[in-house]
Design goal:
The chain is mostly beta strands. The protein has a domain of 104 residues. It contains 3 helices and 44 strands. The strands form 4 sheets. It has a 34-stranded mixed sheet that branches. The longest helix has 7 residues. The termini are far apart.
Length: 573
């Protein structure tokens, strides 16, 4: 039997020129195949390259194999789609990822092919061309090689069409449950929004790079419907529904980018959970809206997440969604920017026992309970949180709340009407604020050193209109509370706080241990109160003199009854 021209043109075998392919010898052997017939074909090309495939004529993946049919003909030629069509159509693509030669090296496609599948009118013994589409995604996965595209005609793929979308067997994807595609195979809806894939299986669609475009995914039992652990995968104009255990699962070294395209929402229906990232998995989401119920993103290990201009919100506008982003463990990395917003979330970002690196720039948090919570224990690596351009409005509890070790920087940000301390740190590490405005709400800043030295530096920041204290500090001599010094004036504004006239509250409240000091030089306070002049400033006659106070109970400063430290308002200590 002569190798057909199409076969020769589409093969690239290391060390063998296309012109050197000779004849193919088939040694068929029949065996049971779900009540039908299975043929094992052994194809010998030239003197060294051997290709094998299982050709099945069962109802599961088509009828009599095309290669068997064509080899009975007088000419011995194989049709255009015979070698590498459906799983019954020849040796080269009987398994995803291409054939394997005697040396163990893969045989790759020289040019990409589109494979059409139609859940309504397709047949798995078809050739896969537009006029003769396949039916199941399983057979398309067996047919498609790296670089090929599987085109899904309008319809729905579920367990009634493809048994592997309904198996709960916890084996590797593609063995008993799930559909595993070769690396860099693409999935594209012929008409965006008219294709649906429903997985009631332990595994769903398993990708290794490539792209997905215009497909609606639905999780039926709560397992992921799209999984990837290697390669670079791009997902556009695709949505998820009913995913209670993360519809998108990213692990290994996989890198995934998601873009909304013409979608109004990545969640077509209620999604308790959207995406889980583990190991070194990476996800970038650009634009679009994501509604969720429980957790939108879950990160572990060294995973990384980047959100650019994304809106995250509760699926039910009458109630709060759970944490939008949960940095669960390990050392994940988080980047959020370009106008990303969080609305009606119980917690925008939650970090637990993690050494996370977090960068926020041009982000809005509104109508939620808490903004950012990081709970860390003592570690060599501390959570690094860099915030710029953050706008926080109408949160019920805290804006930024960090316990344990930290490295926190906030610049050019605004906190308005936050129901608890807008920024609260209880632990050790470094905190700096510059050009931050706190307006109304419970109060602006609350710092407590615990477990180690806490270094605080605040410049060009305003705290006004708080129900309780504008600033509250508590710590021992290990800590540095720097709200301004003679050499570096604070230029902060602490005015009109304790609007609720609570006992022991003021613009600044301090509770310090022996020899502890709060520096607050070069700031503006309530005028004509507790020694401040008509401009709200404190001063001393000579720079070498310090205005130190250890107790007070007025509108500008107040001390705790057990305070043993001092507050420096002007000059040097």
């Amino acid at each position: 039997m002569t190798v057909p021209r199409r076969f020769r043109d589409r093969l690239v075998t290391p060390g063998v020129a296309a012109s050197s392919y000779g004849r193919v010898t088939l040694r068929p052997r029949t065996m049971p195949c779900k009540g039908a017939r299975m043929t094992r074909a052994i194809a010998r090309i030239g003197e060294e390259i051997w290709l094998t495939a299982v050709l099945c004529s069962s109802l599961a993946c088509g009828g009599r194999s095309a290669i068997a049919e064509e080899s009975d003909s007088a000419s011995g030629e194989v049709g255009d789609r015979a070698l590498g069509g459906s799983p019954t159509c020849g040796p080269i693509r009987a398994g995803a990822g291409g054939a394997v030669g005697a040396t163990g090296q893969g045989v790759a496609a020289a040019s990409a092919v589109d494979w059409y599948v139609d859940a309504n009118t397709g047949a798995d013994e078809g050739s896969g061309i537009r006029e003769q589409p396949l039916k199941s995604l399983s057979c398309a996965a067996l047919a498609a090689r790296p670089g090929d595209t599987v085109v899904l005609v309008d319809g729905t793929w579920d367990a009634s069409v493809d048994a592997k979308l309904g198996s709960l067997a916890a084996t590797n994807c593609g063995v008993d449950s799930g559909i595993a595609f070769a690396e860099n195979v693409n999935l594209r809806a012929l008409n965006r929004g008219a294709v649906r894939v429903k997985s009631a299986s332990y595994h769903g669609i398993c990708m290794r790079g490539g792209f997905i475009a215009g497909i609606h995914f639905e999780c039926l039992p709560g397992r992921p419907v799209v999984e990837t652990n290697e390669g670079e995968l791009s997902i556009t104009a695709s949505s998820w529904k009913n995913c209670s255990t993360f519809g998108l699962d990213i692990s290994g070294t996989a890198s995934v980018s998601v873009r909304s395209g013409d979608l109004s929402n990545y969640s077509e229906g209620p999604n308790p959970q959207f995406a889980a990232l583990r190991e070194q998995g990476a996800l970038s989401v650009e634009g679009g809206r994501l509604s969720y119920l429980s957790t939108a993103f879950w990160l572990e290990d060294d995973a990384s997440l980047a959100l650019h201009g994304v809106t995250l919100q509760s699926y039910d506008a009458t109630s709060m969604a759970g944490p939008a982003i949960h940095l669960h463990s390990g050392a994940p990395r988080l980047t959020i920017d370009s106008g990303t917003s969080f609305d009606h979330t119980a917690v925008a970002i939650l970090g637990t026992s993690t050494t996370a690196a977090m960068t926020l720039d041009d982000v809005a948090l509104t109508n939620g309970t808490d903004g950012i919570i990081v709970n860390e224990t003592a570690r060599t690596l501390v959570p690094k949180v860099s915030i710029s351009g953050l706008v926080v409005t109408d949160l019920k509890s805290t804006g930024v709340n960090i316990s344990g070790s930290c490295d926190l920087s906030i610049t050019n940000s605004t906190f308005t009407r936050v129901g608890g301390p807008a920024v609260m740190v209880n632990g050790f590490g470094n905190v700096s604020l510059d050009h931050v405005a706190f307006v109304d709400g419970w109060g602006a800043l609350q710092f407590t050193n615990s477990g180690g030295s806490l270094s605080i530096k605040v410049r060009n920041t305003s705290a006004t209109g708080g129900e309780y204290a504008g600033v509250s500090v508590s710590g021992d001599a290990r800590s540095l509370f720097d709200f301004g010094s003679l050499d570096s004036p604070g230029n902060n504004l602490f005015q009109a706080n304790n609007l609720g006239l609570h006992v022991g509250q003021a613009n600044l409240v301090f509770a310090l241990g022996p020899q502890a000091l709060v520096k607050a030089v070069g700031n503006s306070w309530d005028a004509n109160q507790q020694g401040a002049d008509s401009a709200g400033h404190y001063s001393v006659g000579a720079a070498s003199v310090g205005l130190l106070v250890s107790n007070g109970d007025g509108p500008n400063y107040a001390s705790d009854a057990a305070n043993a430290g001092q507050l420096l308002l002007a000059g040097t200590p």
